[in-house]
Amino acid sequence: MVFPRAFLVKNAVIANSEEEAILRTRNLGWGTRDTLVLEGASSEQLAQISVSKENSVLGSAEVELYSQSEVAIRVDASEASFVVLTDILYPGWRAYIDGKPETIYRAYGIVRAVFVAAGPHEVLFRYEPDSFRLGSTVTAVSALMIALLYVIEMFLTSRKKGESTLR
Asked: Which residue of 55, 99, 116, 147 has the lowest C-beta tally within 10 Å?
């Protein structure tokens, strides 16, 4: 069985740790396509997807853009569910649904999942590590300090020239 890059799952079980998630995933065998093993999902979201279990067609999840720093998925969910992206969960990734930040959950102990409500959505995973933001901030502050020092130096130099012409 080959998993698609992204797919919808409605049935979910909660694991309290990565080890438990991996064990539960292993115990599911080939049922992992139909049941999601999540770490840290909210009970409110699970309640939304547990309301109706009769409908087996969840909708579609199509990857529209796939690059090193961004993955865009067009989702049309017939009901509330989780979108699973079968890429390894790595720190620094952020998720946006229709432009709004969303929590990324660890699924099956290793990959990413986000909760989506029923309807069409644009799910965007973007690599935005905090280290990049910190580096950008340090660079900007350093550039401003250098510019300020340059302006002060120019001011002092012009002031000295003005004093020497008056003598």
From this structure: 99
